[in-house]
């Protein structure tokens, strides 16, 4: 069995040409970077940095979560919210900019004007629906489960397999793992396992990576998630829906830091009969971050697009609400009946 070549040849050669012609390469990913955004960025950096003629850097819009600090290269990330001038000068001087794991400049927050003003050509590698025309080479395949798996495919099709060392493999594997919930959704493509087999040959330890990503919690994180499930989870059986909210006051009480509620939104989906789950976090007074998950074909991305100016994938999407937490709840509860049409086909799991 061999790994199928799904990226068109013209895109592979266009990307290769641009990389070979560039000396100063900047890699960017979306705000609140997750395992896939960071994994693809640092994985690509590890591959490119092996060429001593190139200077390669990764810029994130904001601070990456602590639990991904183990990724090789994480210490060298330029965080644009803290080092804005550095991010600006790196982008201004770049010969090539990578846009990883995002489909629109809106997803990079304060990096948007800096990337927009940079004159370097751009390569997008992404798996979100409806990519905007922001890149010279757009490698966008929404059927793929992660940007990391697409990055692997690109390197493989460029004939660069041997450049994927253990550092790069750790990063790529992490994104494949996190964007499939430890291979529990979007994970039936046999290619995934052929790719994992190749990554393991570099000497990485997938069990250690699993423990670092999923099995490392602070006591505050465990407490806040326990509280959220015990006291704050509402089930709305008429719409097969679960809803969790955390107010600014509650977040303060548990000394919430970014990342503490990561994956909380998935948990109600384990209840039979729950098809979609919504988590609303009042990050600031008047600003609510919305996270949604679903099973089967229930399209939470459509809901997030319509109600929260966001988007994402059919089973994992998010957005933002400008207003009070109560109004955010009201918005989703009022809209829920509109999506009942998707319930019957997804109840039988
Ligand atoms: P999470 O719920 O883990 O924050 O995000 C899940 C997925 O939803 C992300 O991978 C991303 O595709 C999408 N997403 C989350 N927040 C936003 C947002 O504010 N805007 C858009 N367009 N997509 C989002
Ligand atoms: Mn992703």
Number of helices: 13
Strand order of the largest sheet: 3-2-1-4-5-6
Unreliable runs, pLDDT <50, ≥5 residues?
none
In helices, the fraction of residues equals: 25-40%
Structural class estimated from helices and strands = alpha/beta
Query: How would you sum up the global shape?
Result: globular
Order of helices and strands: HEHEEHEHEEHHHHHEEHEEHEEHH
- Distance between the amino and carboxyl termini: 30 Å
Return Rg in Å: 20 Å
Bound molecules: guanosine-5'-monophosphate, manganese (II) ion
* Average pLDDT over all residues: 96
Report the biggest beta sheet as strand number plus sense, adding barrel if it closes: 6 strands, parallel
Give the total of beta strands: 12
- Quote the beta fraction: 15-25%
Fold and architecture overview:
This protein is α/β, with parallel strands linked by helices. The protein has helices spanning 9-20, 35-49, 84-93, 112-117, 147-157, 166-178, 190-200, 206-214, 219-232, 248-253, 300-308, 325-335, 344-347; strands spanning 24-29, 55-60, 78-79, 96-100, 122-126, 137-140, 234-236, 241-246, 276-284, 287-294, 311-312, 316-322. The protein has a 6-stranded parallel sheet with strand order 3-2-1-4-5-6, sandwiched between helices. Helix 2 (35-49) links the parallel strand 1 and strand 2 (55-60). Bound molecules: guanosine-5'-monophosphate and manganese (II) ion.
């Amino acid at each position: 069995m061999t790994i199928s070549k799904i990226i068109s040849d013209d895109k592979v050669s266009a990307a290769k040409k641009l990389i070979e012609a560039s000396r100063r390469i900047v890699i960017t990913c979306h705000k609140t970077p997750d395992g896939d955004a960071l994994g693809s960025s640092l994985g690509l950096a590890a591959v490119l940095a092996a060429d001593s003629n190139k200077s390669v850097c990764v810029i994130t819009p904001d601070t990456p979560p602590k639990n991904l600090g183990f990724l090789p290269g994480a210490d060298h990330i330029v965080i644009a919210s803290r080092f804005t001038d550095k991010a600006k000068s790196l982008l201004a001087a770049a010969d090539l900019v990578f846009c990883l794991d995002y489909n629109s400049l809106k997803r990079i927050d304060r990096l948007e004007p800096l990337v927009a003003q940079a004159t370097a050509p751009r390569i997008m590698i992404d798996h979100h629906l409806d990519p905007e025309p922001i890149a010279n080479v757009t490698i966008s395949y929404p059927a793929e489960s992660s940007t990391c798996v697409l990055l692997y495919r690109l390197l493989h099709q460029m004939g660069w397999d041997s450049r994927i060392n253990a550092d790069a493999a750790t990063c790529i594997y992490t994104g494949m793992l996190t964007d499939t919930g430890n291979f529990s959704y979007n994970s039936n493509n046999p290619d995934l396992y052929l790719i994992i087999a190749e990554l393991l040959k570099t000497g990485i330890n997938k069990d250690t990576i699993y423990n670092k990503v999923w099995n490392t919690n602070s006591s505050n994180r465990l407490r806040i998630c326990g509280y959220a499930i015990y006291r704050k989870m509402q089930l709305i059986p008429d719409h097969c829906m679960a809803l969790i909210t955390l107010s600014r006051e509650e977040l303060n009480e548990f000394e919430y830091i970014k990342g503490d509620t990561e994956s909380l939104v998935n948990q109600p989906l384990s209840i039979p009969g729950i098809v979609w789950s919504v988590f609303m976090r009042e990050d600031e007074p008047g600003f609510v971050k919305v996270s949604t998950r679903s099973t089967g074909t229930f399209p939470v991305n459509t809901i997030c697009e319509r109600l929260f100016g966001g988007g994402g994938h059919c089973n994992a999407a998010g957005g933002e609400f400008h207003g009070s937490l109560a109004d955010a709840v009201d918005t989703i509860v009022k809209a829920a009946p509109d999506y009942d049409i998707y319930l019957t086909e997804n109840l039988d799991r």
